[in-house]
Write a structure and sequence with these properties.
It holds the Pfam family DctM. There is one protein chain. The chain has 33 helices and no strands. The protein is mostly helical and about 750 residues long. Among the domains are: about 190 residues, no CATH class; about 80 residues, no CATH class.
Length: about 750
Amino acid sequence: MDKQTQQEMINELEGSDRDVRGFWAFTTIAVAVFLSLYHFYIAGFGLPGIGSKTFLIFHLTLGLVLVFLIFPPKKGLNQKTVPWYDALLAIMSFGVGMYIIQNQTSSSIISGRPTDFDLAIGLALIILVLEATRRVVGKPLVIIALIFIGYFFLGEYMPGQFFHNRGDFERFVYEISYRNNGIFGTPIYASAQFVFIFILFGAILESTGAGQMFINLAIRAFGRFKGGPAKASVLASGMMGSISGSSTANAVTTGTFTIPLMKRVGFKPHVAGGIEVAASSSGQFLPPIMGAAAFIMVEFTGIPYYQIIQSAIIPALLAYVGILFMVHFEASKNGIQGIPKAELPKGRKLLLQQGYLLFPIFVLLYYLVVERISVNNSAFFSIVVLLAMAFFAHRFKESLGRSLLYAAGLIAIVFGFQFIVGTLNSGLYQLNGLFGTDVFGTETVRWKPEMTMLVILGLVVALVFAVFQRKSKLGATPFRYSWRNVVEGFETASRNALSIIVACATAGILIGVITTSGLSTKFTRIVVGFSETLTNMLPSFMVTDNTQLYFTLVLTVFACLLLGLGLPTTATYVVLAAIVAPILTDMGVHVLIAHLFVLYYGVLADDTPPINLPAYATAGIANAGPVRTGVQGFKFDSAALLLPFVFTLNPTILFLTDASWYEVIFAIITATVGMIAFASFIQNWLIHKYAWYERIIALLSALLFIQNNWVTDVAGIVLLAILLALQLIKGKYQQSKEQTA
């Protein structure tokens, strides 16, 4: 499956089978590339003389325009052009956005007394956002939003704690459309400020051929082992999933290559598809980028990025350990072997040809974790290095002398640009008087001295790899990067961001209703009160200090799985962070633990049938049923089903306690052992198939490792030792029986 076919498959799964040509194709690409360039520039140089609110409005406006140009009212129309009504909606979206930008500081908006026309524009914005969300994300989120809107207006008819009398139409439109606690609140701010630039980083990285490199590295590392292609799929999908904002795109990108390999060595089609679903979705939980959720979490929690990824790394790795053991047990009980060593990619050749593509990720981590500069600047610097390397890696090998001249010219341009920025801005500013506008400011164009160093760094890395390729008598990187690939990367980034843009805007509506109606505190009281009632119903000998918290966590899990059905994982996290996470923090759970808890179950919701887009993607590749594939995806991800309970009750593995290093190591080991025990329970296999009582022992052992207590840990280890002994005895008995026969 070539890249164009992959993209068409992703577009169709995510709601767009419109395939336009000519003028509309050019217009769509131009808007998409401009949107990416707009965010790329602001990430590197800051806002060019516009306010932060204008930045958010323009971000959403262009997103809405693209939605109506790309996504039809429903799938199956097979449109070859943009119909008049969608062109009208795109124009309306742009007009509404421009009106709000021009009038955001008008007296009617500032004073909170919007005119009738202000209200009409605000209502149009809400309707456009909901319609765009329906097209891109699907009906579930829109239905949730409509329920909340209905609650806002019907609050005076609600019983008990749900009662409120704030359901005024003018207040609703004003709060949602013009204030900072509605559409232009925290979710859309996170989308514009943090998420988009990392979607762009991932799209450009993928456009350089990095996805295939990750797959080949994973095949090289795990391919020869039992069930090797499936284990390689887990590793490759984890690497891609961390930098991808879409589980579906990740599943298609890696699954195209790994699913046929899994089927070839003996995995059933629906199992192969399910493994890819679990591996692709769980990448959203894996640092350094966590599918962009980490950066939204910074905004919601106020916790620094480096602390978030520090806390998230162990649970994320444990989740993948769980999937790997699920795969291992599946391969063991079905006798599935790996790929012959002779057929594996050559690791040394692979690293020499494309290993430079790992370098921008290290640059990103250096700026984020070591230098701790802004998230936007870190991504911007990484993209600059990546583009410089990608352009010259192949060309240095083809023609070193000529390419060195081009490289020197590029360095001269980048270095010299800082000296003409002032003159350029002065000229642009003069155009205001000439055309009677105030579009250009005194700092419309900006530049940074670091650009020269970054370009040189990228060129040096590309040159070093080219020299080593020559000395090793290897061919150049198999991917020749061009301007066309740059355009594709920028266009793909905007397309991939649309689901997050509209979902974050709709999440803003939810938050606006929750805030304006006072539902947030009421919802928390209801859940906490219900968990307290359940606790009081238990006999006293069954009640511990954490019993009420257990009930709250279980109720939270169901809320996460329900609210996350059919939503992109990043959008799911935004909704859950606004609605569900406060319940846990009010119960005394650390704010970071609460957000990681809802993020994990939000990711798991993406694997939950029947609404499971990644399963539809992998099922199409594997030629299997989507529901059956989705069930397998949930199964392979469920090895870590209890993991959030573990780190909530044992925050040592999140590095949030003052525990000593050996306590941290012991906590990680016991959590790992518990995950393996739970995976064996689900698969009904350890070394051999379980007897019914062995399976119960495995489950009890896994449950004992949840509680942070040395007594339960020792009991869990003892049970697991007994289980292992029973399995070994069973193996010897079966071997003796076979020899006798």
